[in-house]
Amino acid sequence: MCGIVGAVAQRDVADILVEGLKRLEYRGYDSAGVAITNNNNELLTAKRLGKVQELAQALIETPLTGGTGIAHTRWATHGAPSEVNAHPHVSNSTIAVVHNGIIENHEALRSRLQGLGYEFLSQTDTEVITHLVHHELKSSDSLLSAVQKTVKQLEGAYGTVVMDSRDKDNLIVARSGSPLVIGYGVGENFIASDIMALLPVTRKFSYLEEGDVAQISRFNVSVFDSNGKPVEREAKEANVSHDSGDKGEYRHYMLKETYEQPTAIRNTLDGRLVAGKLDINTFGEGADEIFKNVEHVQIIACGTSYHSGMVARYWLEELAGVSCNIEIASEFRYRKSFVPKNSLLVTISQSGETADTLAALRLAKEIGYQSSLVICNVPGSSLVRESDLAFMTKAGAEIGVASTKAFTTQLVGLLMMTLAIGKHHGMSDEKQAEITQSLMSLPAKLDEVLALASSIEDLAEDFADKHHALFLGRGDQYPIAMEGALKLKEISYIHAEAYAAGELKHGPLALIDAEMPVIVVAPKNDLIEKLKSNVEEVRARGGLMYVFADSDAHFASDDTMKVIDVPICDDIIAPIVYTLPLQLLSYYVAIIKGTDVDQPRNLAKSVTVE
Ligand code: HGA
């Protein structure tokens, strides 16, 4: 959430900052701003409500020149989206600050600073940092020391960059709870909340650790830990493709990313199933030993990742014979939970920076989890660095706020984890071979599913005037129904709920009428006859159904039901296969509704605040 970019260079940096913000815009897009120190040590700022493009236009009309600057694209937590609340915030026309995160003691700090004569212009929590730095600078010999004193007084989470126009050679950056990465150039250096922002200018990065404060100048980067001790943070070359931020021939990132799923899954499988056998080292050093000793798995995740974890619970208990619980990170982290013996904590996060999930991992270490594994799409992210084991999905950059390929590659990772654990818990060689075969067949199967796009597009018309929708599934398709409902909510703003179909008669049947489309996920499996009974319950009450099913399930379209013929696939991979038609349905409904598909209102990618 919120994007930060900063640069110290000889050349003018405005274009670099704006390009960086564009690349981070999917993380927050209610307003954007930039502050630049020019050659005369003057602080120049521009802010705009709305998308980065508004800011870019403002800078075309009134260019800001200078080699040191900071910029921000905001996802508001404190104070409405507005120009005045947009970052950077400024104190005394000299100190400029951008910030990701939440300063929890902002009220107390604000009153103290007001008592000292500081005037607050915004409603944000961030502005306290700005004035506090200015105040501390009065009794400090450098900006670095003022920032070090400031962060000691902050409670909550921050990734922050501070610039003082009287000292245009340095930026001071600090991290606690919100990621920051330093980018190394030649005679110029950079800072950002994500490497994506800096790919056009460098490939060499180092990550700040929790509590670090760093001084960045053109030729030097000095990092200090939370005790003020100088530390080295190793710089590495990033292995990411430069143009992953390009939409190509597609109208939206979400559509591009939906179509990329066969390739993303091929990449995720590649090199990991050697001669039909899973290479355990893919999870990291010591994985085999850890999996051998696991007696219980606790999965922690949020949002879409939570749904992939729910599918994994079906797989782990049924295929690997290991008990599994799953919980939402923001709940887990704030309750006292029982830790069964030899428990593995599995976190799932596309970005690896999800604040609640990261906090849950840190808590799990304190309360006695034997070991931890993360399923993640971003190498070097906080969850990857802090977990014992990591399975890296190879989805590539996911820009659309509504997750598509990150979700399906997470499922692939979780199925591989099931294999790896199951192998030590009595899973037969035949079963292992069967799962491996199914995984290998997946990319081609998904290509077949994507061919359904135009028939799904035709269905979308039916949803144009609807305000609600109900999704039904059973067994491991229940979480897929939940994911389908979440996608529809996120991008079309239609209220959608998912139910385990057996729950219908316990309440939701009361909602059924012609205005409530019911989407049913119905592959032929052991539960199909049970599901058919639920379908009849809906039909008997005049409900209109959209049934995603294979030909073996024997559904037929009629006045009350439209059947979408999904290719037959193995049961094990059916949750992955049935995800795609639901993604496409949401996408085409959103197109008809005219919403902002890639950047839906009120949302942002990579939820780095609580
Ligand atoms: N609390 C700050 C920054 C919000 C943020 O980091 N969002 O991801 C604000 O509201 O401006």
Automatic annotation (TrEMBL):
Subcellular location: Cytoplasm
The organism's place on the tree of life at top rank: Bacteria
UniProt KW Transferase keyword: yes
GO terms under biological process: amino sugar biosynthetic process; carbohydrate metabolic process; fructose 6-phosphate metabolic process; protein N-linked glycosylation; UDP-N-acetylglucosamine metabolic process
Catalytic activity of the protein: D-fructose 6-phosphate + L-glutamine = D-glucosamine 6-phosphate + L-glutamate
Keyword Cytoplasm: yes
The entry's keywords: Aminotransferase, Cytoplasm, Glutamine amidotransferase, Repeat, Transferase
GO MF annotation list: carbohydrate derivative binding; glutamine-fructose-6-phosphate transaminase (isomerizing) activity
Subunit structure: Homodimer.
Name this polypeptide is given: Glutamine--fructose-6-phosphate aminotransferase [isomerizing]
Native source species: Colwellia ponticola
Lineage: Bacteria, Pseudomonadati, Pseudomonadota, Gammaproteobacteria, Alteromonadales
